[in-house]
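can u pls check wat happens w/ magnesium ion
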Amino acid sequence: MSSHVASLLVAGSLDALTYWSLAFMVAAGLTVVFGMLGFLNAAHTSFYMLGGYVAYTVAGATGSFWAALLLAPLLVAVTGVILERLLFAKLYRAGHASQLLLTIGLAYVIAEASKLVWGDSAFAVAPPPSLAGRITVLGATLPVYHLFIIGAAMVLVCVIAALLLGTRLGMVIRAASVHPEMVGALGFKVRDIYTLVFAVGLYLAAFAGVVMAPLEGVYPAMADDALVQAFIVVVAGGLGSLPGAFIVAGLLGLVQGFGSVFFSAYAMFFPFTVLGGVLLFRPVGLFGAKSA
Amino acid sequence: MLRVEHLQARYGRSQILQDVSLHSGASEVVCLLGRNGAGKSTTLKCLMGLLVPNAGAVSLDGAAITGLPAYAIARRGIGYVPEERLIFPKLTVAENLSMGIWHDRSQVPASIDRVLGYFPRLKEKLRARGNTLSGGEQQMLSIGRALMAEPRVLLVDEPTEGLAPVIVQALERTLLALAASGTSVLVVESKLAVASRIAARIYVMAKGKTVFHGKPDDLQDNHEIRREFLEV
Ligand SMILES: Nc1ncnc2c1ncn2[C@@H]1O[C@H](COP(=O)(O)OP(=O)(O)OP(=O)(O)O)[C@@H](O)[C@H]1O
Ligand SMILES: [Mg+2]
């Protein structure tokens, strides 16, 4: 009996960590772009979906998941940069209503365009053979691929933290997130810094879309499913706060991971429970500024 | 050096700057005086490219810089010390200073040494975070940061506001020393006393216009201007 509980706990923890990793990768770009640029991107998870679809195509063409993991996020990030230059940047100061109008519209355009290219059925993407197996820990059989997702997310988070906290470019980005006009008045092209931040956020979202593909496949509603969760993470974490998003993604992971092991029938309500719980005690979100 | 002719600017629909003309030459401190809301800070923002003027011309050594973005104006050799100081709160003092060099990071150590020559008090604070500094130290840091790239023109907005007399005196000496070393220093002030001590020339602004220009003594003697545009 107790070994049964132990294996459930192990399985739940792995699910929790996997979900945490994915939720944070998707939400990180959304919250940073909002915090730094004041830009609310309702099409953010459309890039997550594009990551999945492009990965499906690349994996199909090359026969290699690794090629897809390498190429798809880059391609999506480049597309995002072009859109940022042509469309988004014009609305950085235009207010959230116009930004939402534009990006909700864009989300529809991306969804319809994807259907034209890929049709409206779901596709499975196979994990690479080296990660396809399972290992047994304390009586629980765990997919190796989940461990890979967690590892990849940890590497990405560490790389980004190291860039932000340990390099001169990271210092300029942190400065620009507080006083962008001053950074400009010191000779830096804040415009380019914004584009870079946007690109990294979309890269992460698309990366999440690629690693998600072998788990749940790629399908047309992928963007919408992720959008609600991403907004929950961003709002409950405090708009614009990366540490806040990290913690709330973790909370979501916990309730999702253990909830779906123990009370799977109610799993779809858990994210809203987390959102409601956090906002009840801190209406501005965990790390939100006092005046929102 | 820096020349401003009939500058006009607005925030939204309200025309804040109506007609601002001034000139700031090499090796001199020039003060811009005026009551609260006269448009002094707005003028500096326009000169720095943080606000795009809707009429008028700004030139640096004869080359037009009107309407250029802030980074381009900074790169041409104009330094800016905003009224709010805008220290980066979570960066250390050394990092805040290094933000003053956008192009060649190898120059940072030498520039920090040079700036610490003006503000020795910052030396023992180099590793402290910006948000742990006193008001006076923040002001020194904000000026120091602007000096890192050795600007030809330094725009300083109310540097003495809210600071103790000793620190005000120290800042006045620094601004004079900068001018003596060739920099053109344009200082926004609200106190005539400070302006009289440091300025070679004074402009008075009211309701978005430059309404007086002269030497500090001329202004001392001009009771009308003082009563109408400066005294409360
Ligand atoms: N961002 C803004 N939006 C709208 N109006 C503004 C803005 N900033 C300043 N103003 C208005 O422009 C006018 C001039 O302001 P400015 O800050 O240039 O005055 P100032 O001479 O620097 O005054 P002070 O001595 O109080 O600093 C004021 O009436 C102010 O209300
Ligand atoms: Mg002012």
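The mean pLDDT of chain B is 94.
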